Structures are given as structure tokens and as C-alpha cells.
Sequence to fold (159 residues):
Amino acid sequence: MWKPSVTVAAVIERDGRFLLVEEETSEGVRFNQPAGHLDPHESLEQAVVRETLEETAHDFTPTALVGIYMSRYLSQRTGLDITYLSFTFCGEPGAQHDRPLDQGILRAVWMSYDELLSCKEKHRSPSVLERVDDYLAGKRTPLSFISTHSSVYEVAVNG
Fold:
């Protein structure tokens, strides 16, 4: 059965600049929002907080859902074909910690919108700019729109 890969992303703005990561990918060095896969036993909000910390060393407090984005990635190099369903949050940046970044992350960088536009060919996906544009357009859905049942947090016990 076909299933999309569920991911989360964070649009984080401070003083007119956006927090991005520069990362190694199979297609070369690319820019992306702090983002990653939903892990077992966590909510979407927990996933975006974790991914932001792992990729940027910044705390993040999500305040709203900017949008849900579905896109297809077809690697020209490997033939890999994946459909991503990405839940994108905006929120408040917190403290920056002295800790290593996730494997493959070269650096966390604050970029202006113009800087982001000037490197479109280096974006990990078309969603990078779309997420920021939607954020700047004021698209927001309250976090109360998202419900995570308590069963998600339960670890299965083999009998």
C-alpha cells in the first residue's frame, strides 16, 4: 500500500530574517527550513520542536500551523520517488544551545527574504519559498486544530 512520508517544518522569523539550514543532500548542498520526519510516539508539534533543536541548536515554540504541503520528490540521480506530506509550523525561536547539529547539516543561517529569493536554485524543494510566502501572507491555523490521541504515545508491548 502506498503511503506518503510525513514530515514537519518550521518557519522561524526574527527581525525580518528566517532561520534556515544549509545541508548536504543527494542532490548537493541545499537550503531548507528546519525539517524532518515524524517519529513514532510523538505529536506533530513535538516533532517540529525536536527537529528544530537537532538541526539548528535553537529551541522552538510552535504557535500556529502555516499549512500542509504535499509534494513529490523524484531524484534524477537515484530514481528515488517519494511523496512528502509536510506540516509546517511557525512560532517563536528560543535559546540557542552549544551542541552539534544533525549529521548532514552544515550550518544554521538567518536569511532575509531577498537572500532566500536569490538562492532559489539551492532550495531543497519548491516548498521552502512557498512556506515563507504563506507565512508572510498571514496564513495561520490555530494549534487547537491538531489533535493527537493518547494512543500515539503508547509503546506497544509484545506479549
